[in-house]
Amino acid sequence: MKKTVSTSTPQLLSRLVLGCAVIVAIGGGVLVEGQVERYIMREPRFALERAPEYGDPPPNLQIEGVHYVSRDAVLRVFEEDLGRSVFLVPLAERRLALLGLPWVKDAAVARLWPNRVSVQITERKPLAFVKRTGGAETTVIDLDGVLMEAPPSAALSLPVVEGVGPDVEAMARRMRIHRVDRLLRELGEMSREIGEINASDSENLKVMQPFRGRAVTLVLGNRDYRARYEKFLAMVDQLFERLPNATTFDLRLEDQVTATEEGQ
Asked: What predicted TM-score, i.e. pTM, was given to this entire model?
């Protein structure tokens, strides 16, 4: 048997009034929110101030972590935001623009009320110079295999690496420079003596350095770099005495060293 539930007129009126009250409250909230937004966008005290003197940095644009990255390039990213409310700064868009700058590995952009913007830059760390055919080495490479032009004013003391230039596919370049990084870490302080590393074959790294007046090439393979390097140091007197014209020493075998004389 079906039951019919009747609703009295007072109950209907009560629900109608409640519904209208909710609609009015929502509408009032939207109106207040819009007024607040307009106030924040127009009120001068929320504006990102311009520099008082031409050429000076904006006082409320805080930039941290910049060493190799051009500070002027960072400032240009926020040029159109100066004089406007920080509420209008498109943080995600500005971060993407910063990531497109040379030497920038990561960036964070934040609003600091009432009128400041914070920019935190994480720079790439150069690992080596990239050997270039003809001319000085001015391109550097980081651990991600990213190539960058060295800042003219930067005093970098880095080894030169062959086989990681722009002609090498990105994934292969990254793998090769990871091997180079492992070699440098294993050798530690001894790596300072190395002048050049050939990483054209990532399975067989070669290091070149002057040693007691002789330019030598050490073939180190793809592992045990420190042990093989130290083996050469322990045998160098004997090797130089027996092979006065040798320039290349293959250290990949455990129980012997294979030497090649210049011109062979």
From this structure: 0.79
